[in-house]
């Protein structure tokens, strides 16, 4: 049985998606949320979901901030952006920010069902992206997956590394020992699968990690 959370501040949109999913999937437990805070509470209360359908702009979120927050707090939960906005490059940006797919609200019901089935099967869905772009986004998704594997403290250290700070400066800023900083940097390089700080910076800059 799939467990799906529909997070959208418009009741009619939630009703429409609920109907589409209920008809297409015989056994599916559906939950709803009308704000990012409510969505977060539902995931914390109910545990893992097979899929979260997230509106791009809703109370508590602007742009990709809601997506980024959910990806950081619940890295194992696939999040699909469902949006009325269709600006060129928006889907690619959503995937780069960690979305498992981008579904325009203007799609036919059958196309929405196909998109959700692809994501549930472990694939990435975005209708506007060409194959070459999709390959680039697959690389971005892998980079984000590696970043997600870092602990919160390791992410803090990585941001300082990206900012050009030396180990002794990081130790001073975080009020920890040099040994601790070196241990964090070593773990970061290992999880990112790179061999130097420079490689780490180049890698994470591809997904604008330092700016997020």
UniProtKB/TrEMBL annotation:
PANTHER family: HTH-TYPE TRANSCRIPTIONAL REGULATOR YHJB-RELATED. InterPro entries: CheY-like_superfamily, EvgA-like, NreC/VraR/RcsB-like_REC, Sig_transdc_resp-reg_C-effctor, Sig_transdc_resp-reg_receiver, Tscrpt_reg_LuxR_C, WH-like_DNA-bd_sf. One of its GO terms (molecular function) is DNA binding. Pfam families: GerE, Response_reg. It comes from the Bacteria. Residues 143-208 form the HTH luxR-type domain. This is Response regulator transcription factor. Keywords: DNA-binding, Phosphoprotein. The keyword NADP does not apply. One of its GO terms (biological process) is phosphorelay signal transduction system. The modification 4-aspartylphosphate is found at residue 55. The keyword Nuclease does not apply. Residues 3-120 form the Response regulatory domain.
